[in-house]
Amino acid sequence: MEPGQRSADISPSMRWMPIVTGLQVFIDMLGSEAVPAAYGHNYGNVALAGWQQITPDLGLDREVLAKIQAEIEAYAPIPLFEE
Q1: CA 39 to chain centroid
Q2: Which SS3 state, helix, strand or coil, does residue 74 take?
Q3: pLDDT at 76
Q4: Which of 6, 25, 26, 45 is the most exposed place for a label (fewest CB within 10 A)?
Q5: SS3 label, residue 80
Q6: 3-state SS of 45-73?
Q7: Is the pLDDT of residue 7 over 80?
């Protein structure tokens, strides 16, 4: 990873060690829903926007996307982190 590519929440001293880091990530994911939305593995209501940024346009109109977003928000409301 190039300097400046890591999120501010990730320690610059974190290094990948195949078995050790894999185990740490596995344990981290067990508690991943206990963090605020958009942090860790708890994507909250930003999941649709994230998928839209990394997948090709599937031709869905704004009305369909709004329905999908409303369903996501109704399913699992997660408060955003405020400092």
Answers
A1: 6
A2: helix
A3: 61
A4: 26
A5: strand
A6: HHHHHHHHHHCCCCCCCHHHHHHHHHHHH
A7: no
- Tokens (6 digits) for 82: 């405020």
Distance (Å, rounded) from C-alpha 42 to C-alpha 46? 9
Cα-only R_g, the chain: 16
pTM comes to: 0.47
CA distance 46 to 68: 12
| In contact, 56 and 11? CB cutoff 8 Å | no
DSSP annotation string for 24-46:
HHHHHHHTGGGS-BTBTTB-GGG
